[in-house]
C-alpha cells in the first residue's frame, strides 16, 4: 500500500494555472516555428531531395530535444542553484531537473512550494527548452541541405541538444547566468540560439563543401512562402514566453530587466515591419523575391536580444538594417566559397548586430540576480547592461561554438562520414535512400515510394 503524498494547494491556484498556460502557449509557438523551418527548407531543395530533407529535419528535432532533457535543463538551472547557495549546486540541479530528476517525477501539487514555487511553470519550461533545442538542431541541419548524411546530422543534433545548447544557455541566458549576472543582456536567445546556429552553420558548410551543380533557385516557392508565413505566426507566440510573467508584479525579461508584455509584443511586429521594408527594397533591387519573405525574419533576428529594453520606434529602426546584413553575409560566404546562402547569413550577422545594439539601447538598464535576493552577488537587479559585456559574450560564444563545431564535425567526417556519396547527390537522396524516383504531388500526399526505373 502506497503512502499518499502531501498536497500543496498553492501550487494549483487559479493564477498558477494561468501562468502555466501562458508558457504552454509559448512552447507550442516554438514547435510551430520548427514546423515552419521544415517547410522553408523543403521549399529550398530540389524535388529529388524533398522527402529526405523533411525526414532528417523531423528526426533531428526530437533527437536534440530528447538529448537536452537528459541533463540539459539541470545544467541551465545550475545558475539559480548557485544564486541561492545550494551545496554541490550542479549535481543538485541535475538531480532535481533531469528527466529522471525529483521535480520531473512528481505532480506539481505534490512539490513543496518552498523548494519549487510555481512547479507547473518550471516543468513546462523544461519542454520550452526541449523545443528550442530541437529548433537549434533543425536550423543547423539547414546548412547541409542536399548533401549532409543523415547519421552525421543525427549525431550533431544529439551533441547540440545534450551539450551545446545547455552550456551556451547557462553562460548567457537567465538572470543568474555567469555573463548575464555581470551585465550581458539577451532576450530571445541571440547568443545561445541564433549565434550558435550561425557559427555552426558556417563550420558545417565549410567542411561539407559546395553542392554539386551549385545552389539552385527555390524548388518549391509555395512551400517556402507557407513556411515563412507560419514562422511569422510562431515568432510572437514564443517570444513572449522568453520573459518572466509575475502576477501583480509585472513582466520581466529573462535577465530580470523590467519590461512590459505589450511593448515586447509590439516590438516583434515593428521588427517585422522594418525588415519587410528593406527586404522588399532588396528583392526588387536584386531581383530575388525570397528577400521579401526573409526580410521580416532578418528584422526579427536583428532585434532578438533587445525586445524587452527597446521602444517600438527603436525596434523598427534597428530592424531596417537586418536585410542588408543578411545580403552582406550571403555575399561574404559566397566569396569565401562556402555554400551556405540562408542559415548563417540569416542567423549570424543579424544576431551579432542585435547583441551590440542591445548594449547601446539598453546601456545602464538594471538586471541580474533573482527575485527575493536582496544583497550579495545575486541581488535582484544588482547589475546593469553594458556594451563591454555584450562584446565579451560575443567573443565567448563565437569561439566556443567554432571550436566545438569543428571538433564534432571533423570527428564525424573521419568516422561515419559527413557527406553523401557523389552518386547519391547527383541522383538525389529520395531515389537513392527512399527508393522514390520522383516526387509528384500525388505521391507526396501518401508518401508512397514510386518504383525505381529499370
TrEMBL record:
GO terms for molecular function: ammonium channel activity. GO terms for cellular component: plasma membrane. The chain crosses the membrane at residues 20-42, 54-76, 122-140, 152-173, 188-209, 221-246, 258-283, 290-307, 313-333, 345-365, 385-412. One of its GO terms (biological process) is ammonium homeostasis. Pfam families: Ammonium_transp (PF00909). Keywords: Ammonia transport, Membrane, Transmembrane, Transmembrane helix, Transport. Its main location: membrane. It is found in: Membrane. Belongs to the ammonia transporter channel (TC 1.A.11.2) family. This is Ammonium transporter.
